[in-house]
Every structure is written in C-alpha cells, then in structure tokens.
Amino acid sequence: MKIRVATFNVSLYGKTAGEVYERLIDGRDPKAIKLAAIVQTVRPDVLLVNEIDYEPTAATARLIAEEYFAIARSGRSPIDYPYIYAASSNTGIDSGLDLNGNAANGEATDAWGFGVYPGQYSMAIFSRFPIDKKNIRTFQNYLWSELPDAHRPYDPETQKPYYQDAVWSKLRLSSKNHLDVPIQIGDATIHLLASHPTPPVFDGAEDRNGCRNHDEIRFWVDYLDNPDAAYLRDDRGNTGGLPPDAAFVVLGDLNADPADGDGKPQAIRRLLSHRRVHDPKPSSAGATERDVKNKACAKHSGDPALDTADFGSSGHFRVDYVLPSKQLNVVDAGVFWPRRQDPRRDLISASDHRMVWVEVEVP
C-alpha cells in the first residue's frame, strides 16, 4: 500500500487564546481557505500541522478539518480526516521561573516554551488511518538536563552557565512537545516522530535557543539509537527509545538547515545521515526562483531546490522534514512551492513555510 505523509507549518496562531477558533468558525477565513487548497492539492493521507492552537477538546483542529479540508472549493475535491490527534504543548505555560533573567516573571519568554497563551504554536495530526491513541508517547515534561551531554548554554564573557543550577534542573527540553504517534495502516504500524523545536534565534551571545534547538533534534537521534535507554522517560513514566525493527517517519518544522542559517547544524546532519533514516530530499522548482535582490540567498551554500521556507530578507531555508525509516520504500517526494507563472502560486502566501510530502510503500 502506498501512503503520502506530509508536514505543514500553517502559521495559525493569534494574540489571545480562542482568537483563531473565532476567526475560522464561519468557514470563510481567506488564509485557512488557501491552506486547505494546498492540502486538497497534495492530498496527504497523514498530515502533521505545526502552529495550530491546542485545546483539550481539539476544537481548532476539528474545525479546520470539517470546515476547510472537507469542503470542496475552486474545483478541488474535499479531503476527510476521520482521525485527529491534537498535541498539548509547553508553549505559553508559565514556568514560574525567570527564564530570561530580567527579574520579571510571567512573560512569554518565561513559559516552558515561548508563547503568549497556553497552546499557541502547537501541533495536530490528521489521518485517514486509525491513530493508536493508547500507545502514543509524549515527552512534554522531559527535562533538558536529563539528555546526556546536553548543550547547556554558557555566557561567553563570564564562562558561567546562562541558567543557574536551580533553573537548569527544572527546564523542559521540548519547546512544544516530542511525540511518538503510532498510525495503524492495515496490519502495519508506522510511528510518527513529530516535533517543532524552537528557532535557533531570538536570543543573545549565550545562544540558548540555538542550544535548545540542537538538543530537541538530537533527542530523535538518541530515540532511534537507544531502544533500552533508561534516561528516555516519557510522560507516563515508560522508558526507552524506539524498537529497532519499528517503521517510522520523523517529521515536522525542525527549524534547522543543514547548510545555512544561525543554528548548530550538527544535530540535523546526524539525523539526516542516521543509519535508520532515509532522506528522500523532497524538492521544488519554485524554491529555486530566488529573489535576485535577496543578498542572504546569494550567500547560502545549500541546494536551493530543497528549501522549504521563505523567511524574507533572511533568505530561503530547508527547515521542514519528512524522513521515513529505511524499511519504507520511497515512491515519490516533493515540496509544494509552485513556480511564479503557476496559477497555484498565490496559495503559498498563506504561510512562510511550504508543505513537504513523501509517498512511501508500507510493507
């Protein structure tokens, strides 16, 4: 059986909790209509959406599925996702600590993951196949300091830790969450290993976000390498990484380019070259049509065809990934980034990220 798996950062967030839901409720939101048109064009069987609000009822995720994805528009066929999993997130949850060191608590930068309200920038999975919710593993509460050889941020001037011991011992690794979500496809199970690490910017010389981004990605390397690791403890208290014979897809907006940008590229390079991972290198023709006036793009060394996001004056980057395990035969792969003359080009204005998809054969 062939299935198409995709990731898409849709940038659906507001300034207050509930704002996005209210904006979408009548089914007429122009941004969401464009996002749905992309989904209906690529037609993934399993879709991870980054940057969608989380509520315990999954209200926003269900709303976009029912009032946008499942509604035919502009000659495009609707697509139904009977199975939805909305993931809770560290974003906007106050840590009770002064994480940015400005002697003030309760700010967006003092949340376990940056956010102005709980559930902002979260994730949801939409699937045509059953989601094994009983066996989902989450690592929302996993401590950064529990990861061996963690990149603890240091002040380069004083050579002292940016976070004092009392804070470092409580910090969570995941800026949103790390998910292992089993999808049941006939007799086979595929584990979606989903995350959305913090961008490696918006910090100072200590590079605290760069360090965290690196370790959020490296978590998956450890998860694939160490099926018996006692230090990999999920939110239910179960330990260990992924079994060595399990089929999987690592996916999400990982906010890391292996060749360009301000991040620490070692972790994403390790993941891309991992012995269990197949990098199909999804590409597009549209990404190569860079703005000739964009000096940042001109300085990049990565293959422009592989880029998945347009960050304006900062340039184009490859930051969104769908990486299947090697026992899943890759049939096709791509990035939805049409050329300028393509009539679908206007759709990509809905987000600064592009949908990345991979089609695989499930044994």
Automatic annotation (TrEMBL):
Domain of life of the native organism: Bacteria
EC number: 3.1.4.12
A GO molecular function held by the record: sphingomyelin phosphodiesterase activity
Domain Endonuclease/exonuclease/phosphatase as annotated: residue spans: 7-353
Keywords, comma-separated and alphabetical: Endonuclease, Exonuclease, Hydrolase, Nuclease
Residues covered by region (Disordered): 274-303
Transmembrane portions of the chain: none
Record protein name field: Endonuclease/exonuclease/phosphatase
